[in-house]
Hints:
This protein is α+β, with helices and mostly antiparallel strands. 29% of the residues lie in helices and 21% in strands. A four-stranded mixed beta sheet has the order 2-11-10-9. A four-stranded antiparallel beta sheet has the order 5-6-8-7, sandwiched between helices. The protein starts with a helix and ends with a strand.
Amino acid sequence: MSKLRRTALLATAFLAFTSLAQAEPKHGIAMLGEPALPQDFKNLPYVNPDAPQGGELRQAITGAFDSVNPFIVKGQAVIGPRTYVFESLLGRNWNEPFSLYGLIAETIDVSDDRQTFTFKLRPEAKFSDGSPITAADVVFSMETLRDKGRPNFKKSYSKITKVATPDDHTVIFHQDSGDRELPMIVGLMPILPKTQWQGKDFSQSTLEPLMGSGPYVMDKIKAGESIAYRKNPDYWGKTLPISKGLWNFDTVRFDYYRDANAAFEAFKAGLADVRIETDPTRWNTGYTFPAVNDGKIALEKVDQKTPAPAAGFVFNTRRPLFQDPRVREALLMAFDFEWANANLFNNAYHRTFGYYGGSELSSEGKPADEAEKKVLGDALAKLRPDFVDGSYRLPVSDGSGRDRKMLRKAVGLLDEAGWTVGDKGLVNAQGEPFVFTILVKDRDQEKIALHYQRTLQAIGITANVRIVDPAQFLLLQNSYEFDMIPWTWFNSLSPGNEQNDYFGSDGRTIQGSRNMPGIADPAVDRAILAMLDAKTRDEFVAAVRAEDRLLTSGFYMVPFYNAGGQWVARWNTIGRPDAQPLTGFETTALWRNK
């Protein structure tokens, strides 16, 4: 083949590829339907566009860190880089289930089948050192995160089959997988400066400040103790509508404390400005100190508008002990929520059902309709009738802490699974006792684990409670070296590809996934695929409810509880907009009162 002919064929192939992307450029994109904000929107609906500027926001959190790179498995990453330092091609409006608007990219063009999508970068977009963001940085980011980042990056970005950069400000992606969410996932990809990483190993944890294009730069870093983000006065995007009313502080600082009590004392002493409280006893009895009584601190509850966090003690089904669902259901029955709520939490909570509690996506109380049955397929015949017709309810004890009727039911299920009461407590056919360890990382988690331990003792089960430091907890969590841990999934009103990371079969063996239970169920995989393929809201809701029904009926965790919102304490030196987004209290929209 002649050189001229080869060149002509390559040009023809490129034109055929890029022609697929010649849709109408748009200012935003929604997972389903159209984005709510018009092209000429002035600001996000939950900000004060005229918020005062300046000052410092201080927050006290628990734990520690040994890395500032949040994109890799190795190390325990500091909080904040993805919010304050790194930007993506598109930005979120948290007042919609899942809509994105132009940020680094001014527009996005998406073909009707979502196979090809084009981002047009803003010429004014710059990294914090003043260097321009180019198409080469976008491609570098995708390849680096895919090859050296967390497993979820690899899973998503590996679906990209072609990339073209016809000029420095245009990037065209193509996929063959049919993943309708992929344009949005790529739109949220953190953009890394190619020049900073030349000659460096991205996969290694580091405490060297990283550079992005966001409104802040990493300033003062004290490993395990604190990090400060300093506002970049030359931030390129400060006049964009999607930025207006956000990023109002000159400095944002996070101080790390050993436990929740120490962090609370820091807030009381005025060393932190805002606090989201998670302990109902502390919320009901601890906020009576002088600053509250004198009106210097505002207490408020921000109501829940998104699914309740799916939190609980998670069974590691990779362990033979927890592979029988009857065993898992029995241990769920043995958790006395009613006693704990009354005696530990001042009756502040209600039980969380499933993985989308309190939203239209939940399967609670809803029979599977024809659309959902189609998603369930042959798994429908394997579901218990009470899960199919929506009549299943979480067990409710008498609140005594030793409900004999409930415990007898649990023992009955264990007996069916081959566990009987012997001299060593509950034993299997080989005479081996039922013993496992609950791994926790702080005193609040230990408190509820010890309550659970006492109930399990009543039916002959030995549950050891082991508290470890956050770094060791992370290591054991990522390698799945645990029997049971407390865990939380934060699901949105628009779940998508992250569900594969949470519950997909690959996560049973891939280290660093969020599939803590080790779920490997083809029916769950199919439900997630149906969710991603949905083209209408009805199809989408049916698929999510099918996933929720399958996960709930699998008894993969002992579900915890939720307050129906967030408890927020705020010194009156900190202001907030009247409106809050669907996701709740939004710290990026706060400001310091003059």
